[in-house]
């Protein structure tokens, strides 16, 4: 793992895709934290940028700093509770796009490998039979010269789940400076992982909502 130097992108400052009185949808760029860390240098993040425009913005879920894509924020406690419950109860639907090393033997499949925190190397995670259940569905979208473009559908939402699952089956995500060896890190200028779609039930109207952010992997 490389030493983390936080230099968040400034353009675009915010990519807001939708908002109403209850929720805000943002397309987060790679390199921007979802919420502040402990260090003062990490105060600049998706949440604090959003709060400059919407003082009532509340964090509901997170994307890794290096992961780009769709995030939903709440604007009141009722919306926060509803959305967090949907994530916890697996009522939301999420799809990701990832470019991984090599070619998979099977074009689609399910990765069912429990995960646990690697206490010797925080914040890393690792596969462990004694960990929490973690399930990821994958589907090949395109086979390239030395890599494969995949659609990933996590059923659970464990920390670093997609990164660790792809590593566990021998196909780490390109540009992964947490789990990849040097050739994996150097294979891309950023982590090739993007949160493409997010679907959930609106906390006030109770209508199903779906948002999409395309990527150019």
How would you characterize the overall build of this protein?
With 217 residues, this protein is α+β, with helices and mostly antiparallel strands. It has a domain at 96-193: Pseudouridine synthase (2-Layer Sandwich). The chain has four helices and twelve strands, in the order E-E-H-E-E-H-E-E-E-E-E-E-H-H-E-E. The strands form two sheets. Strands 1, 2, 3, 4, 5, 6, 9, 10, 11 and 12 form a ten-stranded mixed beta sheet that branches. The chain has a two-stranded antiparallel ribbon with strand order 7-8. The longest helix has 12 residues, at 77-88. The protein is globular, with a radius of gyration of 17 Å. It is an enzyme of class 5 (isomerase). It catalyses: uridine(32) in tRNA = pseudouridine(32) in tRNA; uridine(746) in 23S rRNA = pseudouridine(746) in 23S rRNA; a uridine in RNA = a pseudouridine in RNA.
CATH level-1 class of the domain at 96-193: Alpha Beta
The CATH superfamily of the domain at 96-193 bears the name: Pseudouridine synthase
* Radius of gyration over all CA atoms, rounded: 17 Å
Order of helices and strands: EEHEEHEEEEEEHHEE
The fraction of residues in strands falls at 25-35%
Label the CATH architecture of the domain at 96-193. 2-Layer Sandwich
Distance between the termini: 23 Å
What is the averaged pLDDT score?
96
Q: What is the number of helical segments per DSSP (H or I, 4+ residues)?
A: 4
Extended strand count: 12
Q: Roughly what percent helix?
A: 10-25%
Query: Could you give a short account of the major beta sheet?
Result: 10 strands, mixed
What is the molecular shape? globular
Poorly predicted parts = none
Backbone structural class: alpha+beta
Query: Might you state the CATH topology name of the domain at 96-193?
Result: Pseudouridine synthase
């Amino acid at each position: 793992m490389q030493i983390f130097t936080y230099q968040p992108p400034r353009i675009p400052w915010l990519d807001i895709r939708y908002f109403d009185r209850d929720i805000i949808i943002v397309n987060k760029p790679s390199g921007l934290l979802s919420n502040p860390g402990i260090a003062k240098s990490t105060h600049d993040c998706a949440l604090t940028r959003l709060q400059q425009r919407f003082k009532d913005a509340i964090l509901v879920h997170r994307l890794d700093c290096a992961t780009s894509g769709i995030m939903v924020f709440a604007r009141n406690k009722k919306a926060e509770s509803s959305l967090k419950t949907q994530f916890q109860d697996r009522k939301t639907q999420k799809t990701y796009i990832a470019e991984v090393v090599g070619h998979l033997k099977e074009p689609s499949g399910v990765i069912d490998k429990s995960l646990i925190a690697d206490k010797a190397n925080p914040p890393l995670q690792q596969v462990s039979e004694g960990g929490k259940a973690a399930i990821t569905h994958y589907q090949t979208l395109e086979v390239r010269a030395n890599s494969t473009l995949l659609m990933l559908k996590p059923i659970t939402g464990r920390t670093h789940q997609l990164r660790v699952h792809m590593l566990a089956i021998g196909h780490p995500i390109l540009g992964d400076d947490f789990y990849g060896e040097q050739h994996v890190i150097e294979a891309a200028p950023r982590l090739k992982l993007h949160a493409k779609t997010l679907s959930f039930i609106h906390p006030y109207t109770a209508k199903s909502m779906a948002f999409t952010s395309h990527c150019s992997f």
